[in-house]
Amino acid sequence: MTEKQPIYILPESTERTMGKDAQRNNILAAKLVADAVKTTLGPKGMDKMLVDAIGEITVTNDGVSILEKMEIEHPAAKMMVEIAKTQESEVGDGTTTAVMLAGKLLENAEKLLDLKIHPTIITKGYSLAAEKAKEFLNELSIEASLERKDILKYVVKTAMTGKGAEVVKEKFADIIVDAISQIQDNGEVDLGNIKILKNKSNSVENTELIKGIIIDKERALIDMPKKVEGAKIGLISDALEMKSLGGESKISITSPQQFEEFSMMEERILKDIVEKVESSGANVIFCQKGIDDVVQYYLAKKGIYACRRVPKSDIESLARACGGRIVSNLNELTSEELGKAEVVEEIRKSDEGMTYVRGCENPKALTIMVYAGSEHVSDEMERALKDGLGDIATVIKDKKIVPGAGAIEIELSRKLREFANSLSGREQLAVNEFASALEFIPSTLAENAGLDPIDVLTELKSKHDNGEKLFGINIFTNNVEDVLREGIIEPAKIKSQAISSATEVSTMILRIDDVLASKGSSSPSGTGQGIGMPGMD
Q1: Mind listing the domains of the chain with CATH numbers?
Q2: Of 2, 8, 10, 17, which is closest to residue 524 (Cα–Cα)?
Q3: DSSP character at residue 164
Q4: pLDDT at 333
Q5: Which of 50, 253, 400, 515 is surrounded by the fewest CB atoms within 10 Å?
């Protein structure tokens, strides 16, 4: 009998992991990603220091910032990073919750795989549980409106508690709610209309909301006025210069007289530019392109403040802030096109000159100037502000809030266990494990605060079984109490998005039973830098 020759269908450079090994390794990688951010959750969560290849330091407890900078290699772990990014882009906060929930769902699925339950049944149960959880979440949500600024401020303070900005969360809450209230348009909020700038010339307590725009540009010429009150602002997207000749056009000058006439004509054209600006009534000009030196000189003589090469995004923000219109042709600049502001002035801090446009009548674009003593602190303040802005924007759009501090997760878990009892198949086990995964959030909150998670969970379950739906763990008092009354509030959308994202990635990872990896690419057996990810042996 002749021996059969083995058939190779894959190149030698390909590594293949199949069946249980593939599942277990993917689950382990996802769990390790969740463990990496777990200690940052909650008011008493810790920070991570991340140092990149060139020695740049980031100190933060923002989930997506940590994962983005960790240089993760494992493909399943990368999928976990993607849900953090999705959570950040969709609702601006809750990234740690989403990643932890996905990690716990996969960890719990491993128990079911050990019981010989097929991954398809687990994923079906998880999908059922997720849909039901979002349904229950909708029922448990509380209506919120823009008029209730006190509630909105509580949402911001909850988002910032435990972050580096906690010491100034009251001030930041006022700034964020005022800013969103100003730029929102019938419940629609474009966060691109709020510009965050950082300056190291002062302390965090001096952070301010400018009802207008700060442009990172100085006046074009030192002889121009440093401050203009009652500003009438012209916004020009074209250059205030001589038009250049197109193509290969040439000017032929054959005598000194012709050269003199040409020079005089050039000066007349440039003077005409200044006269057009003056006749429009503008005393401040922001130009997207260049301004000729001669034009700058004459503008200064007329007492007109001008900035050149202002980025397009800043010109558009100025238009929204001061109510002016951007003109592409100087001939179109009339008094009707001008924007208005109480004051336009150049302010120098730490040898950096910036143009402040303040006192706009009904600005739809604003600036938050963040002051901090160091770059690391200002970066973390910016991240905290963005989380708060994202939370408020979500509440205004969705108009729904839920109690925080683990209260909503415990209630959803309780309701899912009741729902599981109505199922007859093996999906019931998956739904119960989903409910158990939700309990991981309050359990971690307690653990990070140095409390006994089992005692806290037991007390929380007891309260919720007795109908106390708003009870969560108040980390500051170490008591289980009505957290809504204590002002610990979160947007409902953050929770529903976290449930959706976590369920999607966990079901996708569970359905993988074969990993083919080229050795030339990032191998699944690679080490996930920063979290000691083991290889696939």
Answers
A1: 14-143+402-518 (1.10.560.10), 213-244+256-362 (3.50.7.10)
A2: 17
A3: T
A4: 83
A5: 253
